[in-house]
Design brief:
This protein is mainly alpha-helical. It has eleven helices and five strands, in the order H-H-H-H-H-H-E-E-E-H-E-E-H-H-H-H. A hairpin with a 4-residue loop joins strand 1 and strand 2. The longest helix is centred in the last third of the chain and has 22 residues. About 20% of the residues are buried.
């Protein structure tokens, strides 16, 4: 495939599989702007504008190849992307998180607990294998080709994470999280959406579990640079979105100047 050397190759394959339900049996020149827009709207109902845009960008790239390189069509259709919010931080309170956990089926509740305990992205949780886990040493690792930033991620396992992993032992020889003996591939299911409704939680995506993890750490005084390292964010800008959640932490640092100024004034008096 054209994208086989891309870091996101497996993600592209997954997107194409999802698209098959709409494009299977169609000729390439049947994929008009209106047809693609309808698919984009369907994707937007189950995910964020950013994720929907990545799907649309893949379609656009393929159709451009078809027109400019392969000459299968005369010209690619114009595909408009959705407006993306610059800084979206949606997180749950501990009370909301526990309400959601009570409403989820057991296999999803285990995955949510593990996600909240580690801050790992959805793909890294669903794709986690036993070869990446060392319960005795309380560590796990995500390989570079599995990480969004392309760099390996070291995961320190707290007691909750270890408990969730231990609970999965013996269910599958390779993959950690399963349902009825098979690896969990999709988490944005009817069970997930119904649980959110019953818990009274609106406008919340699975990826917001990662925001929740980072928000909780920030509120408990963990420095942003430490959160960046733990969460494997490539840039500090990605973590600064949580800065407003740590007013007490910043207040303590700001008081350093009070000490210096008071000391200076006292010495001059």
């Amino acid at each position: 495939m054209e994208s086989q050397h891309k870091k996101s190759h497996l993600e592209d394959v997954a997107k194409i599989r999802w698209l098959q339900q709409f494009f299977k049996g169609k000729f390439i020149d049947d994929l008009t702007r209106d047809v693609i827009a309808k698919v984009g709207e369907l994707k937007l109902k189950e995910t964020s504008p950013a994720t929907a845009n990545r799907l649309l960008a893949l379609i656009r790239a393929i159709l451009r190849k078809a027109a400019l390189d392969w000459e299968w069509i005369d010209r690619p259709p114009v595909i408009k992307l959705y407006r993306e919010a610059k800084r979206r931080v949606r997180y749950l309170t501990p009370e909301q998180a526990n309400a959601l956990l009570r409403e989820l089926p057991e296999h999803l509740a285990d995955m949510v607990r593990f996600s909240l305990a580690t801050g790992l992205r959805q793909a890294n949780v669903t794709g986690l294998e036993w070869s990446q886990v060392d319960i005795a040493r309380r560590v796990a690792w995500i390989h570079g080709d599995q990480a969004k930033a392309g760099k390996p991620i070291h995961v320190t396992l707290n007691a909750t994470a270890v408990e969730m992993l231990t609970k999965q032992i013996g269910k599958h020889p390779k993959v950690v999280f399963t349902f009825k003996g098979k690896p969990v591939v999709e988490v944005n299911t009817k069970a997930w959406r119904k649980a959110l409704q019953r818990a009274g939680i609106e406008n919340f995506r699975w990826h917001d579990l990662r925001h929740t993890w980072a928000s909780w750490l920030t509120q408990q005084g963990v420095p942003l640079n430490v959160i960046q390292e733990m969460g494997a964010w490539e840039s500090a800008d990605m973590v600064r979105r949580y800065a407003h959640l740590a007013p007490e932490q910043f207040s303590q640092h700001a008081q350093v100047v009070d000490v210096l100024l008071n000391g200076t004034f006292s010495a001059q008096q």
